[in-house]
Each structure stands twice: as structure tokens, then as C-alpha cells.
Amino acid sequence: MSKLSKAILPLLLALSLVLNFILGNLLNQQKDSFKVQEVTDGDTFIVSSGQNIKLADLDAPELTFCNGQEAKEHLEKLILGKYVKVERIAQDKFKRTLALVWQGKTLVNLQMAKEGLARYDSTKSRLGDTIKEAVNQAQEQELGLWSSKCQQTENPDNPDCQIKGNIGRNDLVKVYHLPTCQEYNRTTIELDLGEKWFCTEKEAKEAGFKKSTHCP
Fold first, then answer.
1. pLDDT tens track for 33-59
2. Residue 11, C-beta contacts closer than 8 angstroms, at least 6 positions apart
3. What pTM, to 2 d.p., does this model score?
4. CA-to-CA distance for 82 and 76, rounded, in angstroms?
């Protein structure tokens, strides 16, 4: 073998190793990258493989609740029709893949949190603390779900309807508070969670709410 061949051979071998490394990385990236076909709400979407993906550490409002439609529309602007990288965390009881999701260099979970369009709901991802902090900052700045549009102590649309329909965070028990009730002034109506204002006790009861035990 000539001296030239002996010199070129290691270079070719090194080049081959580099190309294999790059190809391997590209294949791995493609394995975790998908085109978004449909956005179903403010935290869930469907990709080209048919998978149902939910943004980890976040919980957006239902579409019929306060800012639910706005959250969906914002997520559509970020990812619909685009390729996203999906870092799987777990699977929820609805068999949706919980994931950290990137569109380019943008962490979609974090962006939705910064805009105040979803509440923190821990799925113990590696970036959960960062997402939680963004949600807290949005709350402090009264953005999105945390604005007076969704968080109300007085009824701005109908001052004659002052009965507060509240839903327990842990037990989901529905109770209503009259202005004469002990907890009334400390109760905030969080419309993004499905809480409501009522005009009459009959209306509240028909909606499945019962009078608070703190009422006279």
C-alpha cells in the first residue's frame, strides 16, 4: 500500500465515523419529531403518527370555560401544521402522552405558561420547576386565566346576580355562597375552572350546587 493510501485511510475512517454519528442523531431526532395535524384544546394536540399529546405540567381550561378557546387558538399559532419535538414523560389515564414539546427552540409548555393560558399541573418533568415558576409569574402579572376576566369577586356582567358557585379543588364538591354567607367575601369565582355566578338559589341548585354550610 502506498504512503498516500496509508495517509488517506485514517481520514476516510474518521469521516465515516463522523457521518455515522450525524446520521444517527438525525434518525433519533426524526424518531421524536412529528407534524401537528390537529389542536384539540389549549394543552392537547394530535400528531401525524396519530398520537394524542398533552403538554406536561400544564392544564388548560375546557373550551367552554373562560379563556379555553383563547388557549386553543394560541397553541394553534405555535404548533399547528408545524413539526415539533416530543420528549415523552408519561401517559395519563386517558392514554395521552404527557410530554415536553419544542417547536424549533421554543419550549411550548413554557410559552403557554408565560402567557397565563394554563394552570400548573405537575407531571414531574425535568423542567417542571421552570414551568411552575412561569405560571406563578403570569399569576402575579394577572395574565390570561389570572386576569379579572376569569378571576372575579364581583359580577361585572350582571350586578343583580351575586350568588357565587364555587367548586372544591380536591373533592370537586359544588357549593354556592349567598352575600350573607360567612365565606362570601373571601370567595373568588374562577371561571376557567367552571365556577359560575347565579341569579337565584333555584338556578344554583338546578346546576348541581348546594348551599355552603357557612351560610345562615
1. 999 999 999 999 999 999 999 999 999
2. none
3. 0.83
4. 10
